[in-house]
Hints:
Chain A is an all-alpha fold. Helix content of chain A is about 70%, strand content about 0%.
Amino acid sequence: MKPEIPVVLPHRGPALHERREQIIRAALDHFRHYGYSKTSVADLAKAIGVSSAYVYKFFESKQAIGEAVCMHSLGQIDDALREIVHTNQSASDKLKELFSSLLSKSLALFFEERRLHDIAAVAATNHWSSANNHRAALYSMLKQIIVEGREKGEFESDTPLDEVCMAIAGVMTPFSHPLMLEEKTPEQLEERVLVITNLVLRSLAK
Amino acid sequence: MKPEIPVVLPHRGPALHERREQIIRAALDHFRHYGYSKTSVADLAKAIGVSSAYVYKFFESKQAIGEAVCMHSLGQIDDALREIVHTNQSASDKLKELFSSLLSKSLALFFEERRLHDIAAVAATNHWSSANNHRAALYSMLKQIIVEGREKGEFESDTPLDEVCMAIAGVMTPFSHPLMLEEKTPEQLEERVLVITNLVLRSLAK
């Protein structure tokens, strides 16, 4: 058996992972300015000075690039929310902050970055893995907070944990879903998130 | 002052209100078969053997016809749900039935009548008065049930009534909204409506 000899490729510009990042950044930039549907793979290739064929070595389709952009943006929301779980607040306060931050960060992503709203709507409606990951991340944060609240004696423990988490995750959906968020004004949404969080906290009371 | 003399118009076919109904029925039929966007006012006029100009005497635009069709379909849901409010069940059971019937009737309207889903989505997203009326009707039924539950001592009375109603109405939205309903299977929705109803009932407990 021959020993494996590491193959050293001639250096031809940025490393592969950097190229990948470069494509995602160009895509984010283009989607922000022109929208997802009006951006082609050729536009992105041109922006970073490579051929479309080269871009296809990294992403098999425009949708794959869209997924990567969504993964990036939703991942940033998840990272910010995860910090709430690790603060020193009571579980009730963590839950309140989780709801209100989810709303404000989703609004910022979908509306301040208006053009990104379109791609997020496509992702949510078509169950892209980025949207599914985001949902799973939220569910897991929620579960941690509920478990903590039960352990600390803040929340009731009679109802099965999974039932409680599934119900609260369902109740949260409208505050992270691009299509739902656009139907109300931010003020209406903020009022609604408040009264719904209070309802959830009453449902968790012992 | 001259006495008002009733004007008797010569009889020229169906009475006006019957014509209006006829246009709505033809529209419902066309929207079901071809969808809202693919139906023109001319198609409807042709179907009932009148001119487009004649149809425009009753409805100023295709959207106005769409509104009337939505009003009709959502009104049927509201009528059926209103019966729940007047049964002899406990307020908790009424609330459970209100949630599950809202889901099943919305699913039936939007999905068994697949083509009507499109128009309902347009109505919901653009806040057509039909969608607003439906929302208001649901809110009023909900409020009646909560008031009754408070009077009977089934529900807590500490939280302001309007806050409770607004929160529950918000929690119900995904079960009546055409865009939300299409993202899950009916089985997932039924499971979700059940766990969310239970969450709401826990939040109402004394």
